[in-house]
Specification:
Layout (H helix, E strand, L loop, with lengths): L2 H4 L9 E6 L3 H13 L4 E7 L17 H8 L3 E2 L2 H6 L1 H4 L4 E4 L6 H21 L10 E4 L7 H14 L5 E3 L7 H11 L6 E9 L3 H4 L5 H4 L25 H16 L13 E10 L6 E10 L4 E7 L15 E8 L2 E8 L9 E4 L10 E2 L9 H4 L1 H5 L18 H19 L11 H20 L3 E2 L2
Helix pairs in contact: 6-7, 7-15, 11-15
Length: 461
């Protein structure tokens, strides 16, 4: 292996070992190049894919086979998570894993990795040691699962049973600095108690959702040709629906719950969903949902309207490319927070706060928190604050560079826990856990699908 020669000048505590589980289009086009860009401090330690030849209808050219990827990234490859974990030189040395498998297989892969973390901790305690064990951190593609019971199980395990490892969901929009600023504004009570939420996301995606060959995006039966752990006919529950809601609106829901501070310690959760009524329309060729309008009832009386469609004409891959149109509005008793635009055109929007001051000149005046002149160094850090841009920045899908903010947060967590292990210091609970945001997102989407089928208001699972 190249590891000994290429990394011999890098201190062991500064080297992080990552497994990539699911080696399809997204992993080959984004995750693997991003990880490789961090070399030599980041080692791609293992690749897992259930089939030897990953395929994707979205790839412009044939994907590399698992053996070709193994050569390219100089690491072993496996066909199941259990096979990888059983390999002593690999499984016990991982600092983190990226889950980029099919939506319906996220649960089983995630649980397997969380159980590995629990087993490591137990073996460490049985050995009579009470300092550091090697923590395993997780970066999971969205949605967290396609089943509420599974989502709740991951939330409970990652938050309570195994809180040592970071659990990050790859909602890239939630890791933008603009999102951190919006969360700070809500937490600081600048717009007062939230009373109403309105959000929409409209994308040019009929080429994706109306094509039957795009199995993973349109089939309601879990698709097994992407990577999954050991074959078991009972390992997946059938998906209620699959299409625009799971494929796209998860980004918006996750952004909203991230800004509302879901899961943050010492904070009462805002807008916990309790009921949903939803109408959907479906693609003629696939039956996948391509538009919806939903009303969400929340425990604290917040009214929440959510809509979206894939029917926007064009394509992000056309010439010229067409972006997604996103609009999110949070209304409070002291003002509102607005964020929206075309996600391909930063100049199309910006984060805006309007204050309520009835009877005063200031009523309705706008403030733009990301505009030059306000120092966000204490919140974002000097480097991020110095590069903050005033515009509309949502999903981060750039293939070049070191990856989105979610990847950075994941690798930072891996570095921190790796350093704890190398120094033998006590393990602390991870600073980042997105599992409650993931649960809220799955709960709402699951109820949307059930309501569209029944025609009734559906309780949150």
């Amino acid at each position: 292996m190249k590891e000994d020669s290429d990394h011999n000048e890098v201190e062991e505590e500064n080297v992080v070992r990552i497994a990539v589980i699911g080696c399809g289009w997204w992993a080959q086009g984004w995750h693997l190049p991003h990880l490789a860009a961090h070399s030599p401090h980041i080692i791609i330690a293992a690749l897992v894919n259930s089939t030897p030849n990953p395929t994707s209808t979205l790839a412009s050219s044939p994907l590399l086979s698992l053996s070709e990827l193994s050569i390219k990234y100089d690491c072993p490859c496996f066909h199941s998570v259990s096979e990888m974990l059983a390999e002593e030189t690999v499984g016990s040395t991982l600092d983190g894993a990226i889950i980029a498998t099919s939506h319906a297989s996220h649960y089983q892969v995630g649980i397997s990795l969380l159980q590995e973390g629990i087993s490591r901790r137990q073996r460490h305690l049985e050995g009579g040691e009470n300092t550091a064990h090697r923590v395993i951190n997780i970066l999971m593609e969205k949605p967290m699962t396609t089943d509420v019971i599974e989502a709740r199980s991951i939330w409970e395990m990652s938050s309570n049973t195994y809180p040592e490892g970071a659990f990050i969901i790859n909602h890239t929009a939630s890791y933008r600095p603009q999102t951190q600023i919006a969360r700070h504004i809500i937490a600081s009570n600048e717009i007062g108690q939230i009373r109403h939420i309105s959000a929409s996301m409209n994308g040019p995606l009929m080429w994706l959702f109306n094509d039957p060959s795009n199995h993973a995006w349109v089939s309601t039966i879990p698709w097994q040709t992407a990577s999954s752990p050991d074959d078991d006919e009972n390992q997946h529950r059938p998906m209620i629906g699959n299409g625009y809601a799971y494929g796209q609106i998860a980004h918006v829901l996750a952004w909203i719950y991230a800004v509302l501070g879901a899961g943050e310690k010492k904070k009462d959760d805002i807008a916990i969903p309790t009921k949903v009524f939803c109408n959907m329309s479906y693609a003629t060729n696939t039956g996948a949902d391509v538009s919806f309008a939903a009303v969400i009832t929340c425990h604290d009386g917040i009214t929440f309207a959510l809509s979206g469609t894939a029917l926007l004409p064009g394509s992000q891959y056309a010439d010229p490319p067409v972006g997604k149109h996103i609009n999110i509005e949070l209304f409070g008793e002291k003002g509102c927070l607005l964020y929206g635009g075309d996600d391909r055109l930063p100049e199309s929007g910006r984060l805006e706060v309007r204050k309520t001051a009835l009877g005063k000149k200031e009523d309705g005046q706008s403030v733009f928190p990301c505009a030059p002149g306000r120092d966000w160094s204490d919140l974002l850090g000097d480097d991020v604050a110095s590069e903050l841009k005033d515009g509309f920045y949502f999903e981060d899908g750039k293939q070049e560079g070191y990856g989105p903010g979610s990847m950075k947060s994941f690798l930072d967590a891996c570095r921190a826990s790796s350093m704890q292990y190398a120094r033998g210091t006590h393990v602390q609970n991870a600073a980042v856990n997105d599992s409650l945001i993931g649960l809220r997102t799955v709960q709402v989407i699951d109820a949307m699908y059930r309501s569209s089928i029944s025609g009734n208001v559906e309780e949150i699972g």
